[in-house]
Amino acid sequence: MLDKNAIAKRIAREVKDGMYVNLGIGIPTLVANYIPKGINVTLQSENGILGMGPFPFEGEEDADLINAGKQTVTLLPGSVIFDSAMSFGMIRAQKVDLTILGAMEVSEEGDIANWKIPGKMVKGMGGAMDLVASAKNIIVAMQHVNKAGESKLLPKCTLPLTGIKCIKRVVTELAVLDVTPQGFKLLERAPGVSVEDIKKATAGKLIVEGDIPEMVID
Q: Of the listed 46, 108, 109, 173, which one is catalytic?
């Protein structure tokens, strides 16, 4: 199984030259550290940064430079800082090519739940609902199962929804899957993980066609 950094490395391979990319809170923020060399992308943070770089080295943090998850970040040459109104104007106007989000649950129809667990205190949904409503392409970075070993890839989400039929691809510690009209289509498996392992961990409908290759991480 992959750790969180390996999931971020795999997702970084989805980023294409020239893209504007929004990174959500959690695993997605790690993608900034693994953008392939030679790929020129512009990372956007919904709190008002365009041109975000990787996380700073220890001792080089600037507490005034934070992402939407309140983590310290770096700025690349040519980056700009602006208010939230401008940031969400970009998002709602579909200026962002790719959004990478974390999730608590994803359904086989592409629904996503990633902002609230009933009974637990939360500050709000943040920008997630704007992002899923406006993004051209959404990839989810998440754990395949919860701490109890129960699948988080479901026939139907059980938690309050963030968006409906909006997720295109999911990358977990076990697999890469596309969301299709027929269900989750297995594209790749993590090194050392069998197709049978993935079937057992997926409650939603899983489509397996032919030989499934291992993920390429590095």
A: 46
